[in-house]
């Protein structure tokens, strides 16, 4: 961290996050094609929580941009099969809905590539639906490949540094999907930052600044699965949808990297056969947003199971377990409550958050 970034970091608590009104009116994000110091990125994008796009020059030296892409700019299936062949990978079905997401299955990589080639051959259609390889921990499974390097702007990554010490998980992913594959409306895990680089292909992003998602909730308080659905115009289902701003629409080209700030809900489409690399991450600029998110999630769980408060010991601890695992079969009979608990699942509880902060202290990140 250079001197300017350090000064900005020290004054972090004194800097309020500005309004997002500029995005509502201009629908414009900065496009970064020249050298940018970390301190300027820190001050202009991390602290104010503003999105931006980096040009392909920031990925041009990555091995995956050369090895995974054909001369025509398409996925190089032959090279990919040589590298990954029988590797089990998570694959989602974009034509199916399960708890406001797409259900997943695990299949051999070569089976997915066979499907993908047939899907292209059949005019981007298949009786199997539109399958999308997503959330694959390729970097963790194949650390020796070194097919890309994390740009310096995203290198202060407390989240993955913590999980690396536990050696059980990480939030670094590879996505591969045909034209037409997509990801439903959501905000990223723990309300973390994310960066996503297109190795080949093009994506369309629809982004809403933090707070706008509240206008998109239905009468039960649930967020939409698809923000482009005509049902959002039904005021009896989504009474406040007309109050929401229009989404920020961004087309991401091959080689470009998008920075998605904390708490920006988004929906993403692959406009072509696309391969991308994504990291979720957080640091001192947005750890407060993570903390607020955990408080909100626990409050939601407590509200939903309040009727059982007097029937169980250690009620607060049970709420945190449900918040993380939603696996207590005692509540399965109460479908509505379990649906909310599953929706509210954050993947971490207060004890784990405390462990996370302790780890940062021990490594000097919070000193």
TrEMBL record:
SUPFAM superfamilies linked to this entry: Clavaminate synthase-like (SSF51197)
Required co-factors: Fe(2+)
Keyword Signal applies: no
Pfam entry (one): Cupin_8
Molecular function per GO: 2-oxoglutarate-dependent dioxygenase activity; catalytic activity, acting on a protein; metal ion binding; sequence-specific DNA binding
UniProt entry keywords in alphabetical sequence: Iron, Metal-binding, Oxidoreductase
Catalysed reaction, written as an equation: L-lysyl-[protein] + 2-oxoglutarate + O2 = 4-hydroxy-L-lysyl-[protein] + succinate + CO2
GO BP terms, alphabetized: positive regulation of translational termination
PROSITE patterns: JMJC (PS51184)
GO annotation, cellular component aspect: cytoplasm; nucleus
Keyword set includes Iron: yes
Domain JmjC: 139-298
InterPro entries according to UniProt: Cupin_8, JmjC_dom, JMJD6_ArgDemeth/LysHydrox
Family to which this protein belongs: Belongs to the JMJD6 family.
Protein name (Swiss-Prot/TrEMBL): 2-oxoglutarate and iron-dependent oxygenase JMJD4
């Amino acid at each position: 961290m250079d001197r300017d970034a350090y000064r900005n970091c020290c004054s972090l608590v004194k800097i309020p996050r500005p309004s997002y009104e500029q995005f509502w009116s201009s629908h414009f994000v900065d496009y970064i094609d020249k050298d940018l110091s970390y301190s300027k990125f820190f001050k202009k994008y991390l602290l104010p929580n503003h999105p931006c796009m980096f040009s392909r020059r920031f990925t041009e030296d990555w091995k995956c941009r050369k090895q995974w892409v054909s001369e025509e700019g398409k996925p190089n299936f032959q090279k990919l099969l040589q590298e990954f062949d029988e590797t089990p990978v998570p694959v989602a079905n974009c034509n199916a809905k399960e708890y406001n997401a797409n259900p997943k299955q695990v299949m051999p990589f070569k089976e997915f590539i066979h499907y993908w080639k047939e899907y292209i051959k059949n005019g981007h259609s298949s009786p199997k639906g539109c399958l999308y390889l997503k959330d694959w921990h390729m970097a963790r499974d194949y650390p020796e490949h070194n097919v890309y390097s994390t740009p310096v702007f995203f290198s202060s990554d407390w989240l993955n540094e913590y999980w690396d010490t536990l050696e059980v998980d990480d939030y670094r992913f590879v996505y591969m999907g045909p034209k037409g594959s997509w990801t439903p409306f959501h905000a990223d895990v723990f309300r973390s930052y994310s960066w996503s680089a297109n190795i080949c292909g093009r994506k369309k992003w629809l982004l809403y600044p933090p707070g706008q998602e509240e206008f998109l909730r239905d009468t039960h308080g649930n967020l939409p699965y698809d923000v482009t659905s005509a049902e959002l115009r039904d005021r009896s289902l989504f009474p406040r949808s007309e109050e929401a701003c229009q989404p920020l629409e961004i087309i991401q080209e091959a080689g470009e990297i998008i920075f998605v700030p904390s708490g920006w809900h988004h929906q993403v489409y692959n406009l072509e056969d696309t391969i991308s690399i994504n990291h979720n991450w957080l640091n001192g600029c947005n750890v407060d947003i993570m903390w607020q998110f955990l408080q909100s999630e626990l409050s939601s769980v407590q509200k939903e199971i309040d009727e059982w408060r007097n029937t169980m010991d250690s009620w607060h601890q049970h709420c945190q377990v449900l918040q993380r695992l939603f696996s207590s079969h005692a509540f399965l009979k109460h479908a509505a409550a379990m649906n909310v608990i599953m929706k509210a699942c954050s993947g971490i509880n207060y004890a784990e958050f405390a462990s996370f902060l302790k780890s940062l202290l021990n490594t000097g990140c919070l000193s």
